[in-house]
Request: fold
Amino acid sequence: MQPLTNRSKVVVNKKMSLYEKIYLPAILSGMMITMSHFFRKKPTIQYPEQKREFSGTYRGQHVLKRDENGAERCTACGLCAVACPAEAITMVAAERKKGEEKLYREEKYAATYEINMLRCIFCGDCEDACPKEAIFLTDRTVKPENNRGSFFYAKDILVEGTEKEKRIDVTRRQTAAVLEFKKHKEFDHNR
Ligand code: SF4
Ligand code: SF4
Reply:
């Protein structure tokens, strides 16, 4: 029968030579390959004691930012939740009361804000959608857990601390285009 391609090979059923029959050379050559790997640079690292440097564009655990005075930036507009392709974000909005100006930057704030880290695909769409620069992805990794409930990250984990040393630096996530956008006075409400 005419073959469809010329890739087929004729199988030769030739007898094994004595050299091939004793198998030792083949075993030794296999061991040489194994042993050569002992002297190569190990590609694995002892995580979590050792950590690799992440790329500048790495997107890890989210942070909900505070402004320079320590007030929460999030105004519970819900744009991040709408933009999220994994439907990982939920929140409940509340109205800021008199005397809470130092806690919340806007008149409306997120009384609860939750991200389901098991759903999240770390795409960064929430960060792009946020008009208040309230949510950013960081170079931190989500910790491994034994139960699913621990992956629901609420404000106690997401909101950064007020102290200087607990602030999360997000400058490398603020692209030149974003910084340029912030200069426009007509977009003041988006700061
Ligand atoms: S990074 Fe993407 S998937 Fe994760 S919460 Fe934000 S928008 Fe949703
Ligand atoms: S994080 Fe940003 S987009 Fe999401 S609710 Fe808060 S202000 Fe709106």
